[in-house]
Amino acid sequence: MIGCRRDDSRLRGTLPLTLFILLFLNLGASAIAADYSLACSRATLAGDQPLPTLDDILERYIEVLGGREAIEDLTTRFAVGQVITDLSSRSEPIYEEQQLELFCRRPNHFVIVRHTTSGPVSDGWNGDMGWRQGPSGSKRVDSIKRSRFAWFANPRGPLLMKEYFPGMSVSCTWTLEGRNLYVVDTAYDFSLYFDVETGLLMRLGFNRKLQDYRRVGEVLVPHKLILSRKGGATSYSYREIRHNIPLPDSRFTAPLP
Questions:
Q1: E strands along the chain, which residues?
Q2: Which stretches of the chain score pLDDT less than 70?
Q3: Any domain includes 146
Q4: Contact (CB, 8 A) for 150 and 108
Q5: DSSP H helical segments within the chain, as ranges?
Q6: pTM assigned to the model
Q7: Is the distance from CB of 107 to CB of 154 less than 8 angstroms?
Q8: Residue 120 is part of which domain span?
Q9: Which of 8, 47, 164, 253 gets the most CB atoms within 10 Å of its CB?
Q10: What is the 3-state secondary structure (H, E, C) of 56-97?
């Protein structure tokens, strides 16, 4: 059996909580990448058959979510949930719970509202600019457009994986936590991990796990993200996700001068 070596990376260190917000939004500020090698097999589990093509993996992913037509019909996404940061293993433990609201509209507009003890804090992108607004004021933050999880904020994100993750190529198979995964490298410093058996996307990079896929209408959507961090993890759990509800233009107006 032919073996391959590949590098993956995960983030370490302390980042502001708002930089991790969203099932799916890592707003990606000052992270430090730590490389470590993973042994992969270039043969599938069914013997020496070749790996599936990238298009095979992506088309199966779309199909198991509910199909191309069902995903194309999505225009908006609204979600409410909770983010829990539990870094109890640190020398100075941190534990925080906050409520979340997510407003998304295709093609790529989104706003995340995090309810803190000091008041609501929102991060958004309206197709032209990004921003962050909180009790202390507002500022422009265009880097939000390059979020690792921006694809989730687009209701049709699964159809646009090559746009959100350029340079994709099938690397190998790998077994992790009892699951066999197809490893798809990207042009970035992380890979995507698709479950061999189910076809679902299970990880965005090594330390971001997608869990609790549930059907919302005709489409499966992950309702939980676990982000491993130094000393613990930050988890995002959505108790309600709805599609195709009206969202006014004012919701995506940047609160900037």
A1: 3-12, 32-41, 76-87, 94-105, 109-116, 119-125, 130-134, 137-140, 169-176, 179-185, 191-195, 201-204, 208-216, 219-229, 232-243
A2: 1-49, 147-149, 257
A3: yes
A4: yes
A5: 54-65, 68-72, 150-153, 161-164
A6: 0.80
A7: yes
A8: 3-43+51-241
A9: 8
A10: HHHHHHHHHHCCHHHHHCCCEEEEEEEEEEEECCCCCCEEEE
